[in-house]
Design brief:
Layout lengths: L1 H23 L10 H57 L4 H16 L13 H15 L6 H27 L6 H19 L6 H24 L12 H10 L2
Length: about 250
């Protein structure tokens, strides 16, 4: 929802700047509308065009790297869950309760992996309790042979990896693009769009062009911001790895 509001605000800034410039430039004194003034305005706009292009490229690259990193971490997280369950199963029936807690945790993660959820691994008290139960059960085991000792040690290490991956994903869910950079980019684009209306003829074609251009640029920035937060919005990391992990755990 936050990304949508940001996109709407950007559209309002860009379209508003171009339309206001279009409506008021005729009221300027004549010496403000000369060719020399127009040339300087265009030159300044070109400068901001270059800077905006560079920043947009950096934002796209940052959002892409964030998305790919989190997507890879989700696959790793799902794999660690499966391996932990296999190790618990290998230990013996004494770990059935631990496997049930682990399955309940994964089920909760999958259930929250919907289009309107904030994140599939957002820290919550219940999720933490379920993982703590697995750890408590592991700590309370009394292995009777070398096989069970090895399985207990392996399961403990794998549980720590699961907890670590969970917190890594939770921390990454906030995104990496700083808000001041977005604000600065919007300021540059607003000045660029304001230059569009300077000395432009006032007709429906110009107004339509300004509105469409503002909408498309705002939509592009919205998608970049949304990709930088892969657990919300239309561009999300797929929950399929976690769903496959749940299927493995419930077999």
């Amino acid at each position: 929802m936050g990304e949508v509001l940001v996109g709407a605000a950007i559209f309002a800034c860009l379209a508003g700047a171009s339309l206001v410039s279009l409506m008021v430039h005729e009221r300027f004194p004549s010496h403000h509308l000369g060719d020399d003034t127009s040339a300087v305005v265009r030159l300044a706009a070109n400068l901001f065009v270059v800077m905006s292009s560079l920043v947009l490229g950096l934002m796209i690259n940052s959002a892409k790297n964030t998305f790919e990193s989190i997507n890879g971490n989700v696959h790793t997280f799902a794999t660690d869950l499966i391996l932990l369950d296999r190790t618990l199963r290998h230990y013996g029936p004494e770990t059935d309760s631990a496997r049930q807690s682990l399955t309940a945790y994964v089920q909760r993660v999958v259930d929250t992996s919907t289009a309107d959820s904030n994140t599939t691994v957002v820290p919550s008290r219940l999720s933490e309790l379920l993982l703590n139960q697995v750890g408590d059960i592991l700590a309370g085991l009394a292995p009777t042979d070398a096989k069970q000792i090895a399985a207990q040690q392996a399961a403990t290490q794998q549980l720590q990896k699961v907890i670590e991956q969970r917190w890594i994903l939770a921390e990454q869910s906030e995104g990496a693009i700083p808000a001041p950079l977005i604000a600065l980019l919007v300021a540059w684009l607003t000045l660029i769009f304001a230059s569009f209306g300077f000395r432009a003829p006032r007709n429906a074609t110009i107004v339509f062009t300004c509105l469409i251009s503002g909408a498309l640029v705002a939509a592009a920035i919205y998608l970049i911001i949304d990709m930088d937060s892969p657990f919300s919005g239309p561009i999300q990391v797929s929950p399929a790895p976690l769903q496959r992990a749940l299927a493995e755990l419930t077999q």
